[in-house]
Design goal:
About 55% of the residues lie in helices and about 5% in strands. It is mainly α. The protein has a 9-stranded parallel beta sheet. Strands 1-2 form a two-stranded antiparallel sheet. The structure holds 2-acetamido-2-deoxy-beta-D-glucopyranose (7 copies). Keywords: Leucine-rich repeat, Repeat, Ubl conjugation pathway.
C-alpha cells in the first residue's frame, strides 16, 4: 500500500483510467460500453423529481466502483449537470468513494445535495464551472461530518477561491484526514496557505500558478510533506536563499517540482542542484523551463541520490527533449500545462520527419494535449501539424479506427474554435484529406462538411480549394439524404460551388478541383428539391450548358453535369425551367454519345421530362415523340457497362416512370437503370428495391398487357435477381408500399 501511495502521490493520477492508457485497437471494455449507454440514456431509466433532478425509477444497486466510474464518465463526457447529478442523491444504491466531477457544470446546491451525503475518500473537481467555488465545496463538505472526516484527496485545480462578499467561514483545516490537495491555477493567497499548512495529515500539495508570495508556512508540514509541486509561482517574493531555506527543511520530501514555463531569471534550480546534501530523500525533481542548469550539476545531484527515478529537464539548457522517449514522457506528464505541451509538440513535430511506422502510442499523446487545451491556439496549431505527419498516407492505415475517430473530432473542434486562423485550418484540412479517415472512420460528417464549406467560402488558395472540394465531395456522398438536403439548403454552399465551376469554365481548365466540385453538386442535389431550386435560381442551368460547351470531349465532366441535371429533372416543379429548346438540343445530342455513361444520364433527363404527358409538354409535340423514339432506340443498344455508373440512395424517383405505359421509352430507361445497379451490387440494391415495395410494382409491369416487350424483358431480369436475392437472404418482400409523394 505504501508503494501504491507513493506512485499516487508522485504522479497525481486521475481517478479514471487515463486516456493514454486505454488500448484503442481493442474493442471498448464491456463495462465502459454499458456505462456509456446508461449515461447517455439516463432519462429512459429515471423519473424526474419536482425540482427537475433525475432519480432512478427502480432501486438499482451499483457496485461502489461502478458508481464512481459512472460519475466520472458523465463528467468527462459533459453529461453531468444539475438534473443528471440527481441520481447520486440516493447514497444507499449509488455509493461514491472516489468522486470525479472534472469539468462538469453543476451548481453549489446540486453539488451539496448529490455528492456531500457520500462518505468520500477522494474528490476531483478540477476545472468545474465557475458557479461552484472552493468555498461552496468546503461548505458542502462541512454538512457531512463523516465525509469531512474521511476525505483524503482533494483536487481543486482551476477553481475560483474568492466569493468576495463573504468572509471565509469554511476552512481547509476542517478536513482532518486530507493527505493530498491540489490548488493549481487557483487564485490562492498567503492567508489560505497558513490554513492549509495546519492540516495534520497533509503529504502532498500542489500550489502551481497560485498567488502565494511566501512559502514559510510550509514548515508546518516539514515532518510530513512528501510531494510538493510549485510549478510557475508567479508572485513569489522570496530570494533564492530564503526559498531554499524553507525547502531544505522539508526532510521527507520525495517529489519536488519547481518547473517554470515563463523562463524567469531566478537561479533557484542552479542553486538547488549545487546545494550539497539538500533533500536527501528526493526521488523525483522537476526543473523544466529553468535556465542555468548544467549537465555536470544534474549528474552530481543524481549521483549523490541513488534512489532518483526522474529529473524533468524540458526546455532547460540541458537537453530534456532530445529523443522520442523524453518528448513522450513530457507529453504524458505535462498534459495539463499548456506551455510545456506546446513545447513538447513542437519538438515532436521535428521528430515526425523520421517516423516511418505508424505510431498510435504517440498519436494518443497528441490527442491528450489537444483535449486538455482546446482553446489554446499554439497547442492546437502544433498538434494539428503533428497529426498530419503522424497519419499521412500509409501511416493512417496502421492507426486504430477509434483513435482516428477521436483525432478527427478534435480537429473539427479546432476548426470550429479558430475559424479565421489560416494555418490551423490548413493543417486540419490536410489531415482530414485522407482516404482512410474520410471513408472508414466514424465522425460527424455533416458537421465536417459544413466547416470545410465555411472555410472554402472565405479563401481562394488554389491548393487548399482543391483539397476542400475533394473532402466535400467525398463527405457529401456519405451523408444521409436528409443531411445532404440540409447542407444543400444552405444557400451559400450552392453559390460557392457554382462560383468555383464558373471560374473553371471561364478559364477553360479541366482539373481535379472542377471534377470534385461537380461531384459535390451532384451529390448535394440528390433527392433534395431545395438544393435543386437554389441551383436553378443561381443560374446553374446556363452555367452547366456553358460547361458542356466548353468541354465537348470530356466524358467525365459530361457525366457529372448530366448526373446533376438528372436530379433537377426529378423535381416536377422545375420541369418548366428545362423545357427550353437549346437545352434539349444539347441533351439529345449527348443521348447519342458513344460513352454509355454520358448517354445514360442524357436519357434520364429526357425520360423524366417526357414522363409528364403531352399536356405538360410546352414545346412541339413532334419533338416529344421524336425524343421518345430516340430514347427507346438508344437504350436497346447500350452495352453492359463495366462498373456501377452511379450510386442511388433510393428507387423512389423511378417508380412513377415505371407507370408510364404510354411511353415505353420512359419505362425502359427506369427498368434499365434498376437492372443495371441490381446486377452490379445485388446485396445493396435488391434489398433496397424489396424494402421500397419494388417487387409488386415490377410484377405489375411484367403482367400488364400494354407493356412493351423490351420493358418486359428487363422487368423479368430484375425479378429474377430479386428472386435469387430472396432465396439467398430470406428477405421478405415488403407489401407495404411506402412511396414518397411525387414532387409537384
Ligand atoms: C442535463 O444533461 C442532459 C444530458 O446531456 C440533458 O439532456 C439535459 O437537458 C441537461 N439538463 C439541464 C438542466 O441542463
Ligand atoms: C493561472 O491561474 C490563473 C488564475 O489564478 C488562471 O487564470 C490562468 O489561466 C492560469 N494559467 C495557466 C497557464 O493555467
Ligand atoms: C533517450 O534518451 C534517454 C536518456 O539518455 C535514454 O535512456 C533512452 O533510451 C533514449 N531513448 C531512445 C529511444 O533513444
Ligand atoms: C512532416 O512534415 C514536414 C513538413 O511538412 C515534412 O518535411 C516531413 O517530411 C513530414 N514527415 C513525414 C513523416 O511525413
Ligand atoms: C473532340 O472530338 C471531336 C470528334 O471526336 C474531334 O473532331 C475534335 O477534334 C475533338 N476536339 C478536341 C478539342 O479534342
Ligand atoms: C455493395 O454495396 C454495399 C453497401 O453499400 C457496399 O458495402 C459494398 O462494398 C458494395 N459492393 C460492391 C461490389 O460494390
Ligand atoms: C447519390 C449520388 O448522387 N451519388 C453520386 C455522388 O458523386 C459520386 C462521384 O461523382 C457519384 O459516383 C455518385 O453516384
Amino acid at each position: 500500500i505504501s508503494g501504491i501511495l507513493d506512485v499516487y502521490l508522485i504522479y497525481q493520477t486521475m481517478l479514471f483510467i487515463p486516456f493514454y492508457l486505454q488500448d484503442e485497437a481493442s474493442p471498448a471494455a464491456l463495462t465502459d460500453l454499458c456505462l456509456t449507454y446508461v449515461s447517455q440514456n439516463l432519462e429512459c431509466f429515471c423519473v424526474k423529481r419536482p425540482d427537475g433532478s433525475l432519480c432512478f425509477r427502480e432501486a438499482v444497486l451499483f457496485p461502489q466502483e461502478l458508481a464512481d466510474q459512472l460519475l466520472a464518465k458523465m463528467a468527462t463526457e459533459g453529461l453531468l449537470n444539475d438534473s443528471t447529478v440527481g441520481i447520486f442523491r440516493n447514497c444507499e444504491y449509488l455509493r461514491l468513494r472516489r468522486a470525479c466531477i472534472r469539468t462538469a457544470r453543476i451548481s453549489a446546491e446540486a453539488f451539496q445535495r448529490a455528492l456531500c451525503p457520500h462518505r468520500l475518500l477522494e474528490l476531483d473537481a478540477a476545472r468545474v464551472n465557475a458557479d461552484l467555488t472552493i468555498p461552496d465545496i468546503l461548505q458542502g463538505l462541512a454538512t457531512n461530518k463523516y465525509c469531512q472526516e474521511s476525505l483524503q484527496r482533494l483536487v481543486l485545480t482551476g477553481l475560483t477561491m474568492s466569493s468576495l462578499e463573504e468572509p471565509i467561514r469554511y476552512r481547509f483545516s476542517s478536513l482532518q484526514a486530507l493527505r493530498s490537495l491540489s490548488l493549481a491555477n487557483v487564485d490562492f493567497y498567503d492567508s489560505g496557505l497558513v490554513d492549509v499548512c495546519s492540516l495534520p495529515r497533509l503529504e502532498s500539495l500542489d500550489l502551481s500558478n497560485t498567488s502565494v508570495t511566501n512559502l514559510s508556512p510550509l514548515l508546518g508540514l516539514k515532518e510530513r510533506l512528501r510531494s510538493l509541486t510549485l510549478h510557475q509561482l508567479k508572485r513569489l517574493e522570496m530570494s533564492t536563499a530564503q526559498l531554499l531555506g524553507v525547502i531544505g527543511q522539508l526532510d521527507v520530501l520525495q517529489h519536488l517540482d519547481i518547473s517554470d514555463d515563463k523562463q524567469f531569471t531566478s537561479d533557484v534550480a542552479r542553486q538547488l542542484l549545487g546545494h550539497p546534501g539538500i533533500l536527501p530523500a528526493l526521488v523525483s525533481l522537476d526543473v523544466s523551463g529553468r535556465k542555468q542548469v548544467t549537465d555536470a550539476a544534474v549528474k552530481a545531484f543524481v549521483e549523490e541520490r541513488p534512489g532518483m527515478t526522474f529529473v524533468g529537464l524540458l526546455a532547460t539548457d540541458v537537453t530534456g527533449e532530445a529523443n522520442e522517449t523524453q518528448i513522450c514522457e513530457a507529453l504524458r506528464r505535462y498534459s495539463e500545462r499548456e506551455g510545456f505541451v506546446r513545447e513538447a509538440l513542437f519538438h515532436l513535430f521535428s521528430l515526425t520527419h523520421v517516423m516511418e511506422k505508424p505510431r498510435p502510442d504517440i498519436l494518443k499523446l497528441v490527442v491528450l494535449g489537444m483535449r486538455n487545451h482546446p482553446a489554446t491556439l499554439n497547442v492546437q496549431l502544433a498538434a494539428s501539424a503533428c497529426v498530419f505527419n503522424l497519419t499521412k498516407q500509409d501511416l493512417a492505415a496502421g492507426m486504430p479506427v477509434r483513435l482516428l475517430s477521436t483525432v478527427t473530432q478534435l480537429l473539427l473542434e479546432a476548426m470550429r474554435t479558430f475559424p479565421n486562423h489560416q494555418q490551423l485550418q490548413k493543417n486540419c484540412l490536410l489531415s482530414l484529406c485522407s482516404d482512410r479517415i474520410l471513408q472508414e472512420v466514424p465522425f460527424n460528417r455533416f458537421e465536417a462538411a459544413k466547416l470545410v464549406m465555411q472555410w472554402l467560402c472565405n479563401h481562394e488558395d488554389q491548393n487548399m480549394q482543391r483539397m476542400a472540394v475533394a473532402i466535400i465531395s467525398i463527405l457529401a456522398a456519405k451523408l444521409s439524404t436528409e443531411q445532404t438536403a440540409q447542407l444543400g439548403a444552405e444557400l451559400f454552399i450552392v453559390k460557392q460551388l457554382l462560383h468555383i465551376v464558373r471560374q473553371k469554365a471561364t478559364q477553360g481548365v479541366v482539373d481535379a478541383t472542377l471534377k470534385f466540385t461537380l461531384s459535390a453538386l451532384w451529390n448535394l442535389t440528390d433527392e433534395s428539391p431545395t438544393t435543386c431550386r437554389h441551383f436553378i435560381e443561381n443560374q446553374g442551368l446556363d452555367l452547366f450548358i456553358k460547361v458542356l460547351e466548353s468541354f465537348p470531349n470530356e466524358s467525365s465532366i459530361q457525366q457529372k453535369v448530366l448526373g446533376l441535371l438528372n436530379n433537377i429533372a426529378e423535381v416536377g416543379e422545375l420541369h418548366g425551367e428545362l423545357m427550353v429548346q437549346g437545352f434539349l438540343d444539347h441533351i439529345s445530342n449527348l443521348l447519342h454519345s458513344l460513352e454509355v455513361e454520358v448517354s445514360y444520364f442524357a436519357a434520364g433527363i429526357l425520360a423524366h421530362l417526357t414522363s409528364r404527358g403531352e399536356e405538360a409538354w410546352t414545346l412541339s409535340p413532334s419533338l416529344r415523340s421524336s425524343l421518345l423514339e430516340q430514347l427507346h432506340n438508344v437504350i436497346t443498344k447500350w452495352p453492359t457497362p463495366e462498373c456501377e455508373m452511379v450510386a442511388y440512395r433510393s428507387f423512389n424517383p423511378f417508380f412513377p416512370l415505371l407507370e408510364c405505359f404510354h411511353t415505353p421509352g420512359v419505362q425502359l430507361w427506369a427498368a434499365w437503370a434498376m437492372q443495371h445497379v441490381c446486377s452490379k451490387n445485388a446485396s445493396r440494391y435488391c434489398s433496397m428495391l424489396l424494402e421500397e415495395g419494388g417487387l409488386q410494382q415490377l410484377e405489375h409491369v411484367h403482367a400488364h398487357p400494354q407493356t412493351h416487350k423490351d420493358v418486359k424483358m428487363l422487368a423479368e431480369s430484375i425479378l429474377d435477381s430479386l428472386q435469387r436475392h430472396r432465396a439467398r437472404t430470406g428477405q421478405p418482400a415488403n407489401t407495404h408500399i411506402s412511396r414518397r409523394p411525387p414532387t409537384q
